[in-house]
Every structure is written in structure tokens, then in C-alpha cells.
Design a protein that fits this description.
Helices cover 37% and strands 23% of the residues. The protein folds into two domains: 46 residues; 199 residues, Nucleoside Triphosphate Pyrophosphohydrolase (Alpha-Beta Complex), CATH 3.90.79. Strands 1, 2, 3, 4, 5, 6, 7, 8, 9 and 10 form a ten-stranded mixed beta sheet that branches. The chain is an alpha+beta fold. The two termini are 31 Å apart.
Length: 262
């Protein structure tokens, strides 16, 4: 971020020189310098949009406790349809995935910014160490920088894949001793007030895509025609409309956050 600020300041200085010495050699050099510096600034700012937003939130909401939930979602796509599984806590279909877990090193960091356990969902054996916390707004930027660094937290979708698809026998364990996946970016919702949490909250999700082997794709394809209430394959339109389609009497409840994988 400090490098971006330096580039920005230098580009402004070159721009001022270019205007002051128009149609001169100095002006031409200054114009070239401005163009050379402004491009990396634009790309850097675009890549830092979420961090810039978090820095603003740290100032704007510095005295408030903010709920933060950080999860990962796995895009499993085949023949134009997406695999969704039925939730355990809520009876709707959603992408494979869940809230990130933190390691002891991650817990130490969270303690250093006085992050508190979130009580919106009861803490039990399944939800222990979930990255679902409440933190004072002043620490949001520090939290995001730590999260973005990926140290001290889970950083792969395998755990929920195994729990939701292998342990449930939806997919055969012998064909999925491992998975390959590709990171597809991060979605950070704008801060908002949540009546359920009775506080402002920020929902974050890292998106991964499954890269199946040929045998794994065959196993996935066999589930396309399997009738089950525990999972289903849905088009992007069905997901966007949350299971409600014109002219159809059937309604399949689909979670809103499923739209993030399409």
C-alpha cells in the first residue's frame, strides 16, 4: 500500500509538470513519466479494493463490534449445472464448503486483536475454531491483512468436500483419495446491519473450483441422474432465482450465497 501511495504522489507530480511545461521537452518527459506511473497505480488500486474498503471500515466503525464470517465455497460444475448439497443447519441447498477453521497460531493472532467468539450459532464440536467472530471495527483492516496472508487458517476446500460428499457416500472414497482445485477469487459483501446478529456484519467467501480427474468426472456424472434429497444439480438460472421458476409448481429452496459460485 505504501508503494501505491508513493507511485500516486509521483504521478501527480509528473502531471503537474506536464501541465506547467506544455509543448516543451520537459513537458513531454513529464507526460511520459505520468503515463508510466499511473498504469501500475490503477492496477494496484483495483487489486487492493477490498483492503481499501476495510481500511475505511476501520475508521468509520472503529468503535463498534462487527460480526465477521469467512468461508470457502467449492464450485463443482458439469454440463452447465452446479452441484449443491442440502444444509445441515438450514434446509436449503448450498455449495459444498463452510467456514474456515483457524489454527493455534491463528487463534493467537485473533486474541491479539481481542476478537470474540460469535454467539449467533452455538459453539459445539463441529463449529469450534470456526472463523466466525466479532471484532471491534478499528481492527478490521488488521484482520483482513492477516486473513489475506493465509497464515494461521485453513486454506483448502478438502475438509468440507470430504465431510459433505465422501463421508455421506454421495461420491466414492476410492475415486476421491484427493482433489485438485483452482482458486477463483474472493467475494466480500459490503458491511451491513444484520437483525439476526444485532450488529453490523461482513460476509467473506473464497471461491475454489474442483478440477476432477477423468475417473472423478465419471463418478460425478453418475450422480446427475441419481434421485436424492441430499444433493442436486442446478442451472445458474435456478440458482439465481433460488429454486423458483416461472410456470413450475415446484420450489426448491436454494441458499442466496449459492450465487457466488456461478
Amino acid at each position: 500500500m505504501s508503494r501505491v501511495v508513493a507511485y500516486f504522489a509521483a504521478s501527480i507530480a509528473f502531471l503537474a509538470l506536464a501541465f506547467s511545461f506544455q509543448n516543451t521537452t520537459i513537458g513531454d518527459i513529464a507526460t511520459g513519466g505520468f503515463l508510466a506511473l499511473v498504469t501500475p497505480v490503477v492496477f494496484a488500486v483495483n487489486g487492493e479494493k477490498v483492503a481499501i474498503r476495510m481500511r475505511w471500515y476501520s475508521v468509520r466503525y472503529r468503535g463498534e463490534m462487527v460480526r465477521v464470517s469467512a468461508a470457502y465455497l467449492l464450485r463443482i460444475k458439469l454440463d452447465g449445472k452446479y452441484l449443491l448439497v442440502k444444509g445441515v443447519r438450514f434446509p436449503h441447498y448450498q455449495p459444498v464448503g463452510g467456514v474456515f477453521k483457524v489454527s493455534p497460531k491463528g487463534r493467537a493472532f485473533l486474541a491479539s486483536i481481542d476478537a470474540q467468539d460469535d454467539d449467533l450459532i452455538p459453539i459445539d464440536q463441529a463449529s469450534e475454531a470456526d472463523l466466525r467472530i466479532r471484532v471491534r471495527g478499528a481492527h478490521l483492516y488488521s484482520f483482513y491483512r492477516w486473513f489475506d496472508g493465509r497464515t494461521g487458517r485453513e486454506d483448502a476446500p478438502w475438509r468440507e468436500f470430504q465431510e459433505e460428499l465422501i463421508a455421506t457416500s454421495i461420491l466414492p472414497e476410492r475415486v476421491f483419495p484427493y482433489i485438485l482445485h483452482e482458486y477463483h477469487g474472493r467475494v466480500v459483501d459490503a458491511i451491513r446491519f444484520s437483525p439476526h446478529a444485532d450488529s453490523r456484519e461482513i460476509i467473506m467467501a473464497d471461491i475454489y473450483e474442483l478440477l476432477p480427474t477423468r475417473d472423478q468426472e465419471d463418478a460425478l456424472r453418475r450422480t446427475l441422474s441419481a434421485g436424492s434429497s441430499e444433493f442436486g444439480w442446478f442451472t445458474s438460472e435456478e440458482i439465481r432465482r433460488r429454486g423458483v421458476l416461472s410456470g413450475s409448481p415446484n420450489v426448491t429452496p436454494i441458499a442466496e450465497h449459492a450465487q457466488k459460485i456461478t
